[in-house]
Amino acid sequence: LAKTHAAMSPEGSANILKELSDDEITRILSLLKPDQAGPILEALGRLGKDEARRAAVLSDRLRRTLPPTGT
Fold first, then answer.
1. Angle, to 10 degrees, between the axis of helix 22-30 and the axis of helix 49-65?
2. How far apart are CA 42 and CA 38, in angstroms?
3. Which of 5, 19, 39, 46 has the most CB atoms lying inside 10 A of its own CB?
4. What gap in Å lies between CA 32 and CA 6, rounded to an integer?
């Protein structure tokens, strides 16, 4: 499923992901590279005020799931 979202446009992926739970979105985006997940989160944030807040929450959840980079 993550590979499918990586192959989609960020806007298309965001429109689908907005219908899923935050847990499901976090699981999918955590399997993507940052340069793939970032544009999807950005597109989700452009879907409206509520989705922008949700994108911020999801970004924080993703940050907590990733291993530290040492920087």
1. 50
2. 6
3. 5
4. 7
pLDDT in the model for residue 13: 97
Identify the residue whose tokens are 């979105």: 25
Contacts made by residues 57-60, CB under 8 angstroms, sequence distance 24+: 57/22, 58/22, 58/25, 58/26, 58/29
Can you give the chain as a three-state secondary structure string? CHHHHHHCCHHHHHHHHCCCCHHHHHHHHHCCCHHHHHHHHHHHHCCCHHHHHHHHHHHHHHHHHCCCCCC
